[in-house]
Amino acid sequence: MSAHRLKTKALCRRWHRCSELGEETISGPTSDIVVTNGRLVIGPQVIQGGVAIKDGVIAAIGRESSLPDSKEVIDVAGAYILPGVIDPHVHFREPGLTNREDFASGSTAATIGGVTTVFEMPNTVPPTAGADAVMAKRELVKPKSLVDFGLFGMVGQTNVDRIEEMAEAGVIGFKFYLHQTIEGMPPCDDGALFEAFQRIAAVGGVAAVHAENPEIIGRCSAHLRAHGHSDVTANIAARPTVSESEMVARCIAYARAAGNRLHICHVTSAESVDEIASAKRRHLPVTAETGPQWLWFTEVDAAEKGMVLMFSPPFRSEGDRKALWDALQDGRLDMVATDHAPRHREEKLVASVWDAKSGFIGVETNVPLMMGAVDQGRLSIQTYARISSENAARAFGLWPRKGSLLPGSDGDLTIVGVGAAHAIEAERLHSKAKVTPFDGVSTTGSVKYTILGGQVMMRDQNVTGSPRGRDVVRA
Ligand code: NCD
Ligand code: ZN
Ligand code: ZN
Ligand code: ZN
């Protein structure tokens, strides 16, 4: 083992005592870039210091005096240095839906928002539902991407037998839409779902589910429509909490029997959190995400703000909203994901909710909003480092390459600060479709730099790097 690797190992063993690092020399004499004068968030510790990156990976962390010389030195003036933020749920709409977004615009929004890695969803045209589609998408988007990316493969009723080839093609996970029919691809029935989970267990993959019960939603929607309900609250009434929590519980039951890893997308309710917490107590490999929209808004806001808050799964009660914050804090929920789902004004802000498209952007506003919440004391910075990066990397088999500031990890840094309150302006965001309910919402969080593989991709809200994103494959 080389001296460097030995020292890295020693560091790993002692990371919980890394405030002692200042006295150590843990890398070669020079590096490509050194970030200094920051606050490093490493496990439970926040230490004054910096990070040196060489050949795209972290070469050293610690006090300034211990860091190697470098061609490029960035003084971040006391800002927090987090492991590069991962957004594990974005829709960049490529191929086929690029009037809403594409990888160039989506990854620009991501890098300006402090995100270094995204996991991208497969409900495109055509859907990413076989090895051919996975490989074609990778070739298509790689030359345009400013961020590293993992690609989800889609599983529906008709392609359960393509799970193995998609695993071979290097998907980050398998996505199930249990509530809706994607063109030519009906959702899995229970038999197909259970078989799919068994096949995913066999290839060591992760099943990620949009957990909503289509039969409950279909029946409620029909009733509401027949009674002439057509505002945004009808989407909430059509999707009662049990339509989510029952599907969460069902997926947990199947995953327990099949033995696969399970990830629950966009959790919105206390009831679903309870199901997930119970699975975690039983030591099942179940993880879950929620997003800023459900942490900020409730059904009351939907009634007031109207169609802009058309989203599925929908907004719940104040009690649910509080439960999501508590669950992020204590680990019953694992990570923040935006479900960045660009929709144009014309397809969304329409008269009847039954014609309105669900979704809105989020990848660019996520980190500033969540850092504002850290500033308000809703979350500690250590918790935020876990739920913004480390836990997603662990759940999808990328840790410690991603989600970590240890020597040997990818040189991905999100450098953030808190300061004066400023309002989010939708028109200044970088997605193609700018509708967001966060327009005008104030935050004190801001992203100063985004560094990907040692390259400064964003500085003071300007893109400074060129596309260099790589596909990340589950280990
Ligand atoms: C997503 C989309 O637009 O692709 N929309 C949404 O409301 N969440 C699909 C999804 O994540 O379910
Ligand atoms: Zn979804
Ligand atoms: Zn009615
Ligand atoms: Zn989604």
Summed up:
It contains 15 helices and 17 strands. The chain has helices spanning 3-13, 103-112, 131-141, 163-168, 190-203, 214-226, 233-237, 241-258, 270-281, 292-296, 299-305, 318-330, 345-348, 366-375, 381-395; strands at 30-42, 45-54, 57-62, 69-75, 80-83, 85-90, 115-120, 148-154, 173-177, 206-210, 261-264, 286-290, 335-336, 413-423, 442-452, 455-459, 462-463. The protein has two domains: 1-78, Urease, subunit C, domain 1; 84-395, Metal-dependent hydrolases (TIM Barrel, Alpha-Beta Barrel), CATH 3.20.20.140.
Please tell me about this protein's structure.
Helix content is 32%, strand content 23%. It folds into 2 domains: 1-78, Urease, subunit C, domain 1 (Roll); 84-395, Alpha-Beta Barrel (TIM Barrel). It is of the alpha/beta class and 475 residues long. Strands 1, 2, 3, 4, 5, 14, 15, 16 and 17 form a 9-stranded mixed beta sheet that branches. It has 15 helices and 17 strands. α9 links the parallel β11 (261-264) and β12. The chain has helices at 3-13, 103-112, 131-141, 163-168, 190-203, 214-226, 233-237, 241-258, 270-281, 292-296, 299-305, 318-330, 345-348, 366-375, 381-395, and strands at residues 30-42, 45-54, 57-62, 69-75, 80-83, 85-90, 115-120, 148-154, 173-177, 206-210, 261-264, 286-290, 335-336, 413-423, 442-452, 455-459, 462-463. The structure holds N-carbamoyl-L-aspartate (NCD) and zinc ion (ZN) (3 copies).
